Predict the structure.
Amino acid sequence: MSASDEELLLQLALKQRQARRSGRTLIITVAAAVACAVVGWAVLFQLRPLIKSIPLLPLGSVTTALLWIGIVAFAAAALLVAGGWAFARPGKPWGKEMPGVCPRCENLTLREALVEVEKRDGAGLNVGPKGIVILCDTRRCEYTSVKVTTRTRA
Ligand SMILES: [Zn+2]
């Protein structure tokens, strides 16, 4: 038996919120950026001078290629940092604030977001469910509410 649309949407929303809270996306992005920067540094400041220092070898085009590889690696690192900052800033909470008190804990901590489950049919069209998920942001309060706006199309 497959999960209902409500369950699918709720699971995805909880996963999204968890990712925001842990900042895992940002950590991965930063790790990738550091790797790119290290590659760029190694190519530009270690490998290139080494090859240049070898006498009597016509390696002009190789050192030029290495220069470009280094520059591209640095550019990729900068882009990853900029992208990570824009999309995965830690502390940026899931969803948007929703007016009203939580029916379970009575705090003003409800948040809602439109969630869309990705599910492709044979023709590559997205047939997954879509809906509005409401989560309570208070610790230990597990209030959730799902309103399916588009059901899974079989
Ligand atoms: Zn609550």
Q: What stands out?
A: The mean pLDDT is 87. Strands lie at 96-97, 110-116, 130-136, 144-150. The CA atoms of residues 49 and 55 lie 12 Å apart.
